[in-house]
Batch of 2 targets.
Target 1
Amino acid sequence: MVRERVGREGNLGRAVEFGCGTGFYTEVLARKANTLLATDISSGMLELAKRQVNAPNVTFQAVDCQRTTLQDEGFDTAFISLLIHFTVPGQTVAEMYRILRPRGTLIIANLDPQLLHGLDRIRSLIRIAYQGIAGYRLKPPKGFGRNVMSEKQLRELLGRSGFRVESAETIRDPSRSSNIPVEYIRAVKV
Ligand SMILES: C[S@@+](CC[C@H](N)C(=O)[O-])C[C@H]1O[C@@H](n2cnc3c(N)ncnc32)[C@H](O)[C@@H]1O
């Protein structure tokens, strides 16, 4: 559903994607962009993405979105999905501000578990814990989830960091009420 939403974007110009993972969004973004730099901190993820993505205007680079070596004001659009909670959010948003041109657009897809209540919230927490332990055989690292932000917190952070939020949409998967909704936020560098 989020990918469909990305597919309805207008021209993204010179775009950069942070935390591209397996490249789930990369081809859709590439179709909308003149050029796309797809980045991830993990070289393993980048290898997977390179195998999945077939688009002539994409280049790949290993980048930590919190402290990149990308040039100042070099991009029209930055896209970041399901990543900000793994970082120090203030640092990441400040870096987005630095690399975007004035009036450039930051698009964030952000998990917002605070939109779940009661049993749905409990079910989602159990599922995350179960999948982490059974699926990945991992205990969540210390501090995991500490930097998850609600829409309100993210809006405040964007405002403090020099962005104006243009739109925020909540994307919910109706097939299961305990799936965590995703906020799709478009913000402009002012
Ligand atoms: C949950 S996945 C999201 C992947 C993709 N954006 C999506 O929505 O399908 C998070 C990705 O962020 C990457 N990542 C984690 N910390 C990062 C950082 N500091 N800078 C850049 N990428 C990071 C991980 O390697 C992983 O590929």
Target 2
Amino acid sequence: MATLIAVNVGLPKDVAWRGKRVRTGVWKHTVSGPRMARRLNIDGDGQGDLDGHGGEQRAVLVYQSESYRFWERELGRDDLRPGHFGENFTVDGLADDEVCIGDRYRIGGALFEVTQPRVTCYRVGLRLGEPQMAALLVSRRRPGFYFRVIEEGEVEAGQEIVKVSSGPEGMTVAEIDGVLYLPGRTREQVERALRIPALSPGWQGSMRALLEAEGATAGPGNAGLTVAATAPPPAWQGFRPLTITRVQPESRSVFSLSLADADGAPLPAALPGQFLTVKVQPDGGVPPLIRSYSLSGEPGAGTYRISVKQEPHGAASGLLRARARVGDTLDAAAPRGTFYLADGAGPVVLLSAGVGVTPVLAMLHALARAGSARQVWWLHGARNGTEHPFAAECRRLLDGLPHARIRVYYSRPTSADRAGTDYTDAGRLSPERISGLGLPTDADVYLCGPVGFMAGVTDALVDAGLRRSRVHTEVFGAGASLTPGVTSAVPARAPHQPAGAAGTGPPVSFARSGLTVPWNDDHGSLLELAEACDVPVRWSCRTGVCHTCELALMSGAVDYSPDPVEPPAEGDILICCARPSEAVVLDL
Ligand SMILES: Cc1cc2nc3c(=O)[nH]c(=O)nc-3n(C[C@H](O)[C@H](O)[C@H](O)COP(=O)(O)OP(=O)(O)OC[C@H]3O[C@@H](n4cnc5c(N)ncnc54)[C@H](O)[C@@H]3O)c2cc1C
Ligand code: FES
């Protein structure tokens, strides 16, 4: 007979962690007497970060006394008490390898349903003073699980837990946790998981991604945890010299460089929308500048074209403009990126502002080359005709598509610009204008431009009925950070060298942030070094399970400690558990 041993609750509070403040509800205390279990929470309970925790599907976290005994032995601890694993219900019985997703249990006056295993998050490790805990819970197959509250009612320690019905497919919590996080999953397991209606929507999305990604059940990388795993592996390792075969002005400030293999062999095809990372060498023996540029030419042409906007005072763009000549070489890492045109037959919106046109132009080339019958909306914002690169090229490509619609917005047209010919609308391509366009709501949108522009446009697209998940964006710089629960009001600083004595280890280049830093063993991982430099980062478990920190390694090699639970996609690394073993260039 399974029994509810303890009911534990706790409201979110701020705790100090690594010089920061974290808001978390992982500190729970045991309460006596009856408590109401409600749709979102047990009375007196709360979560600090509702993006990662809480909600209807994760209302009650359950952990087993048997697992407490296991961890006491494993961690050599005798101080573990109910609630220490952040759980609301400490239970006798209900082992992770017996309880199945969709099982229903009655406890006291309430009815519960099992929805998913525990979220892999660093906060359980923070609570226990065991930083590796998130990974250990997965690798030892003792995650614990969440209940959804089907019927609200009172619960109390000591009550019997009565199984009311079994979930379909008989898939245990331990099994499904392994399907998502551990290597060796089979397609059949993923399909079974998807047949369980009680599985939370978040986990269903991960399972669908696993199923859709070709080879996801076999090769390295985990499409259930990151889109990075869906891109093909890079075509070559590190940097290789490419020859500049053409330098072409495209507008007042944008110029293109065509690049070819030194021996004339065709270069590997990139996906339409991917980018190339190049090294630009300034004078004076200083480290090279590393910058990324979206490929703007026709994918599969055997050569590459990048198009660079000369920024005022921009170091690399200025050097390229001043120096790049036909016959010179440019060191380039293989094309990468997850912003690429997906196959499909539905409508597609290619939306850009300024030099953000480059990746969507490659997509337009791909559609034109395929003679696509898709409905294609080309929406572009420029200042005027002098700052409108690729105008004739786009027009030619769009003219060849049977279902193309074009809107070009000039924010400040000059007297030389012809309305109806050079541009369709005077004024900015603003969110307000997007709403009135009548865009098809089933379209896939590919959006590139300044960060603020993309945020406003995305909201306008969603307001106009398009799905947020189908609005794909490319950022020409450091991406947004994801630091769950961290609330410290750190002033937003531009990336910088870390405080303290300079390291003596191999150089670490953060390509998007334009920063190179010598490695210092004082930092436990590349993630910690990035944090010390205020380079924007994304993470959740910090111990090699969740793949939130996965990113492209353009060159170099790393050692892991601990080893990732499942390896990242080929050409990627998990920075939370990696240290450089030689000079590295990261897409960060
Ligand atoms: C995936 C990806 C794709 C990209 N694709 C493209 C592309 O297709 N085309 C393109 O042009 N760029 C693209 N970029 C951006 C590109 O990588 C560079 O960031 C850009 O060229 C600026 O580099 P820079 O060295 O010239 O400028 P930096 O020297 O790095 O300067 C960055 C910014 O600071 C400003 N700045 C620098 N010094 C000063 C100063 N003293 N005073 C005031 N302001 C200053 C510059 O104007 C510039 O805007 C892409 C970036 C990424 C990550
Ligand atoms: S943060 Fe989870 S794998 Fe790195």
